[in-house]
Amino acid sequence: MTQASEQAGSTSATETIPAIQMAGIVKEFHSRGDVVRAVDGVDLEIGSGEFFSLLGPSGCGKTTTMRMIAGFEEPTHGEVRLYGASVLGVPPHKRDVNMVFQSYALFPHMNVFENVAFGLRRKKTAKDEVTRRVGEIIETVGLSGREKRRPRELSGGQQQRVALARALVNQPRALLLDEPLGALDLKLRQAMEVELKRIQREVGITFIYVTHDQGEALTMSDRIAVMNEGRVEQLGTPRDIYARPATRFVAGFIGTSNILSGPVTSAAGGSVVILDGDGQHVEATLRDGLSLSAGDTAEITVRPEKVSIKPDADGCAGCRLRGTVTEVVYLGTSTNYNVVTSTGDEITVFVQNSDDSAELAERGADVWLTWDPRHSYVIGAQ
Amino acid sequence: MHGIRSKLTPYYLMLPGGLWLAIFFAVPIVMMIGLSTMTGNVISGFGETWQHFGNYVQGFTQYTPEWIRSAEYAGLGCLISIVLSYPIAYWIAFYGGSRKSTYLFLLLLPFFVSFVLRTIAWNYILGDQGLILGPLKHWGLIAPGFRVLATGSAVIIGIVYNYLPFMILPIYVALERVDPTVIEAGRDLYAGSATVFRKVVLPLSLPGVFAGVLLNFVPAASDYVNASVLGGTGNTMIGNIIYDQYFVVQNYPVQASLSFSLMGILLIGIFLYARALGTEEVLEAAAAI
Ligand SMILES: Nc1ncnc2c1ncn2[C@@H]1O[C@H](COP(=O)(O)OP(=O)(O)O)[C@@H](O)[C@H]1O
Ligand SMILES: [Mg+2]
């Protein structure tokens, strides 16, 4: 702890220090004699100005992680640092981060202006500066002219913007958003996603965004930490996480993924082959830190849009697998095929309907599935 | 034919409720108004005038001190009750945990005993040689002549005690309704606990306080039990006068006019009070308990 504060004192270039560091964070709750481990060893570094998402299913510990940054919970073990300085034991009102609550938590007895001005007034900001800054941020979130309204006179989307403005106006070192779009309907949610990203770019504040919605996380984030059962399963850019899921959990949680498993027949140069012969060939890239040898069982994944359906595999390099179509679903822009492979796995294939050619295959047809080995990854071993 | 019947249907449906109101509310009120303008006395009988308002004038001029005392005791009682009730309601709402309903039940427990009986019990507590003053006088901490019983203070104490739950409950309900995340939002926006209380919790609980004042002031202003049991002779309230005019003096017209004046003043008072504070909020909070 002392080490951390010294570090903060001696370094002048704040940009090089992460906005938020979480080191070895464990959080246990005691309820009715049971111990619930809500967060089970989280290490994160979130850069200044980053749009960072915590993504995971309900109950995986996202809110708890965020509340430890805000100061509403203290970690059982580990340390949270804001710009290098430990905030152990610092109460929420003395931490320079602000939260946007899922229920908005607007002050019902104050109008929009007073709600937004609340934080500045607590910090004893000069009156004309309060007026100016509140006016500016209300304009940024698109609520000009509604300053005198009470929260209950606003729509859900407008309340959401007030909640955002109320936090942003303080220019905190980080903004924490707990499923802020959860209560909005689909259209509004999609509009707000774009809006949030624009506002974040405009104000340049670090956003930590908690969501269970993979679409939101993929759309807005610079980086995503996928959480499961209190741990971070994978940390990376949306592209990384989508294209190269590191674990079976991530592969299953984000997007639709196909999982194939089989014994490794040969392993060399960072890739393994799990099927070879009879004209078929399945090979996948190993991720760093994973090594397999012949005889181990490997699980591999490949995204549905990377796979092609062909009547035969003549002249195809790369991965080739035989199967039978079990279902064809026409979706307008694309068609979904479900195929049971010769290995007994079920594979989904998305095919773009780029021209109005007839369906590639009918239900019950025997087909070949082909893809580039660069698109299949080993996600686990048994 | 059918059209007329269907137009009349709502009125038929109103009939039972309308009859109920007419028989048990409107008719007695009209009879009381008639009574309040009668002249005469109990021996030679009362005669209806419908225009003799001297009883009303007499009611105010002759009993001015009682009117003032009623307002004073009920008003002071409300203030003291707020000061006592707020911390109790606050503690139960925020620190009561899973035992909240137990605490509320304990609070109401004494009120299963009759109003008169528990007021009489305060005779022993406040008596000149009673539970409190007895030991204090014995140890020489207060003058032997010091007294509480048969003073205005005793009446106010009785009023505070008897109507306390009607102050605690609405405040408790208002506090209980405050969204905990709103309190967290205050903390998050740089307000310490004291500021969060002052800027968020207190304003949000005020409708409960206002409702409590309503539920305390109205019955306290027309109360006569506390004054007659604890107040002695010099501290009577308007309720005592009404009681005496009816049961002792048997001057029914004066009694009726006093009752009407009191009812009118309280109704106008409630109306102005609710208007000033926002009708919906006060009545909503009063209805919520
Ligand atoms: N105050 C608390 N007391 C007991 N258990 C809690 C508390 N807060 C959270 N938990 C438990 O911790 C786990 C993680 O909760 P949370 O962080 O809210 O998950 P998420 O936000 O990802 O849905 C859940 O099992 C939840 O029941
Ligand atoms: Mg949550």
Could you give the topology of this structure?
The complex is a heterodimer of chains A (382) and B (289).
Chain A: H1 2-10, E1 20-31, E2 34-46, E3 51-55, H2 62-70, E4 77-82, E5 85-86, E6 97-100, H3 112-122, H4 127-140, H5 156-168, E7 174-178, H6 186-203, E8 206-211, H7 214-220, E9 223-228, E10 231-236, H8 238-243, H9 248-253, E11 258-263, E12 266-268, E13 271-277, E14 280-285, E15 297-302, E16 308-310, E17 319-330, E18 334-341, E19 346-352, E20 366-371, E21 376-381
Parallel strand pairs in A: 3-8, 3-9, 6-7, 7-8
Antiparallel strand pairs in A: 1-2, 1-4, 4-5, 9-10, 11-15, 12-13, 13-14, 15-21, 16-20, 17-18, 17-20, 18-19
Chain B: H1 2-36, E1 39-41, E2 45-47, H2 54-62, H3 64-95, H4 100-108, H5 115-126, H6 133-138, H7 152-163, H8 165-176, H9 180-188, H10 193-221, H11 225-230, H12 238-247, H13 252-277, H14 279-288
Antiparallel strand pairs in B: 1-2
The structure holds adenosine-5'-diphosphate and magnesium ion.
